[in-house]
Write a structure and sequence with these properties.
Layout (H helix, E strand, L loop, with lengths): L1 H19 L10 E3 L2 E6 L9 E5 L28 E3 L5 E3 L2 E8 L2 E6 L13 H13 L15 E7 L2 E6 L7 H5 L6 H4 L19 E7 L4 E6 L13 E5 L4 H11 L4 E2 L6 H4 L7 E3 L3 E9 L9 H9 L3 H9 L25 H7 L4 H10 L3 E2 L5 E2 L9 E6 L3 H15 L5 E6 L1 H10 L4 E7 L6 H8 L21 H12 L3 H18 L3 E7 L3 E3 L3 E2 L16 H5 L3 E2 L1
Parallel strand pairs: 3-12, 3-13, 18-19, 18-20
Antiparallel strand pairs: 1-2, 4-5, 6-7, 7-9, 8-9, 10-11, 11-12, 13-22, 14-22, 15-20, 15-21, 16-17, 23-24
Helix pairs in contact: 7-10, 8-11, 13-14, 14-15
Length: about 575
């Protein structure tokens, strides 16, 4: 998306030159708006009206509590807005804030947008922003973004005129995306709510582009209508946003989409060509690869605790075959053992590219040679033995029941691991049991996805590999489920978080990349897409490979609702 910024600079220069010489210059739409790259200007002839219907693959609960956006009806961005949207590729689009700057190493200043009103007519001010953050501090149970977690060093939040000042006890540059994404609530409403963790907030008052109208729980249909006084002039183009839940999962959602009862769904569709794309020329998809699903080995458990053993597993994996078996030609094959996601490839140390490629090249013979170098050899029956001559026991790969791409891929892995003498089976579990095993370390191997959700790789590395996120086997880990720890990674994360200089931040990330390649704590398995299917029978303006103005995150659907319009 930085290319878009360069394009804008060239366009502005061209317009200036044409004005000097009295020439008329045609404008090509769409192009980024004044708010930032995520809000596109679709031109003066854009059509207004219509309804945008989102199909959820699970039922909704009747709650609009903005502090628990994943457990109820959509509220993020539709009703309650963040300060900024910071894209995984580093772009910023401004919502309730119009700018920010670091005054010093421990002080962040944000300028708050003027002339915004809550949907009940009360003016929105910087005091609402300061109230929201201090309210979260007062009620830790609603701090789902971990804004006030000790690792972020936030000390105080104060409003002064049109600015909000965030003060930190230590430098914490990596906390900016967390602060930027926090939904802001009105002080005059929420100051009267004693326990926000239990409030379902059925009459929400926000600053967003839509007003909640109704929810039919039996039919799982929520209706939102256009906010006529929305501060972003001319938006939204559509009159209504409808969210429809389903009790039937992916298959029921697909049927709804095929019938034309919805515009968008977010799900994996096996055999997508025959099952979806071929049914109607208006059926489209965009599956941007935003990271990887990793084979997580239990690094606190022998023999997975040995880096060379993990590297041998990587060499025994035929990823291209697995990707084609799972997704066909519609998903880009992307494996990067440094963990750098595709949208953040500019953070990759170019000198590490050859080594990274060699670690994900399918070569079972080299895998056996690597195992032999650390004393692991096959017996006459073709079973792998440890250096003491003991045959390794059977192992399992735990996956979530019903997650067909993971299951298919894991079953292929079991066959491929036979070539190096390992006996492996797939163990399908309910999500609850799977996640409990993940947290407590009661697994041999499993699958976990890590994706680009912030403007840099810091949060991903912190979640996946920080020692602050893990725990011994038998105790629940917050993240770092592989249970690999390295003080050099912790140090590099601290350097990144303590320095605003992009060069120093990049050096810190490069340090982590080198360590990850040396030790391979987790193993790239499948590309990690954000699933996005949409139909263009009535609406257009959806994000796609040509116009990737936003990526399909849980927080992005409201941005899409500000861009889509009638054909």
């Amino acid at each position: 998306m930085r290319k878009v910024g360069i394009f804008l600079a060239i366009l502005i220069l061209a317009l200036s030159v044409s004005a000097v010489f009295g020439q008329e210059t045609a404008t090509t739409y769409p192009q980024p708006s004044e708010y930032g790259p995520a809000i596109l200007n679709w031109g003066p002839n854009v059509k207004y009206g219509g309804t945008f219907t989102f199909l959820n693959t699970a039922p909704y609960s009747y709650s609009l509590n903005p502090f628990f956006p994943s457990t109820g009806l959509p509220s993020y961005g539709f009703i309650y807005e963040p300060l900024m949207y910071m894209s995984p590729n580093g772009d910023t689009t401004y919502f309730l804030a119009t700018s920010y700057k670091w005054i010093n190493n421990t002080t962040l200043e944000m300028t708050i947008r003027k002339n915004v009103k809550w949907t009940d007519g009360v003016p929105f001010t910087a005091k609402d922003v300061a109230f929201t953050f201090n309210y979260i501090k007062e009620h830790p149970s609603i701090d789902t973004n971990a804004v006030w977690a000790p690792i972020n060093h936030l000390k105080s939040v104060e409003a002064t005129n049109d600015e909000v000042i965030f003060s930190f006890s230590k430098p914490s540059y990596a906390s900016l995306p967390i602060i930027a994404s926090q939904q802001i609530v009105p002080e005059h409403i929420w100051s009267k709510i004693e326990d926000p963790s239990k409030d379902t907030n059925l009459n929400p008052v926000g600053t967003g582009p839509f007003i909640f109208q109704s929810f039919n729980q039996a039919n799982q249909v929520a209706v939102y209508v256009k906010n006529p006084n929305y501060w972003m002039k001319g938006r939204p183009y559509i009159d209504k946003f409808v969210a429809k839940g389903t009790y039937g999962g992916n298959q029921a959602t697909l049927l709804e989409l095929l019938k034309g009862d919805g515009d968008v769904a977010q799900m994996y569709i096996p055999g997508v060509e025959s099952a979806y794309l071929s049914k109607n020329p208006n059926n489209k998809l965009w599956w941007p690869v935003m990271g990887n699903n990793y084979l997580i080995t239990n690094d606190a458990k022998y023999p997975f605790s040995i880096p060379e053993f993990r590297k041998a597993l990587s060499l025994a994996m035929n990823r291209q075959f697995i990707v084609m078996s799972d997704y066909g030609k519609y998903l880009q094959d992307y494996e990067n053992p440094t963990m750098i996601p595709l949208p953040q490839i500019s953070w990759m140390d170019p000198t590490l590219t050859p080594l990274a490629s060699s670690l994900v090249t399918y070569d079972p013979q080299k895998a056996q040679q690597l195992l032999a170098s650390i004393g692991f050899k096959k017996n006459k029956d073709g079973l792998l033995m440890d250096p003491q001559g003991n045959v390794l026991p059977p192992y399992t790969i735990k996956v979530v029941s019903g997650w067909t791409d993971w299951i298919t891929g894991a079953q292929i892995l079991c066959d491929e691991f036979k070539d190096i003498g390992l006996r492996v089976t797939v163990d399908q579990e309910s999500f609850g049991a799977f996640y409990s095993d993940l947290q407590n370390g009661t697994f041999d191997m499993t699958v976990v996805g890590y994706y680009a959700t912030t403007p840099n790789p810091y949060q991903m590395y912190f979640s996946a590999l920080s020692s602050y996120q893990t725990a011994p086997i038998g105790k629940p880990a917050i993240g770092n489920f592989c249970r690999y720890t390295n003080p050099l990674i912790d140090d590099a994360l601290n350097v990144f978080n303590s320095n605003p200089d992009p060069r120093i931040q990049k050096q810190a990330i490069w340090t982590i990349e080198r360590i990850v390649l040396d030790d391979m704590p987790i193993i790239p398995f499948l590309p990690g897409p954000f699933w996005y299917e949409y139909q263009t029978r009535t609406l257009e303006g959806f994000p796609n490979a040509e116009y990737p103005y936003t990526y399909v995150l849980a927080s992005s659907e409201s941005i899409i609702a500000l861009n889509v319009h009638l054909k």
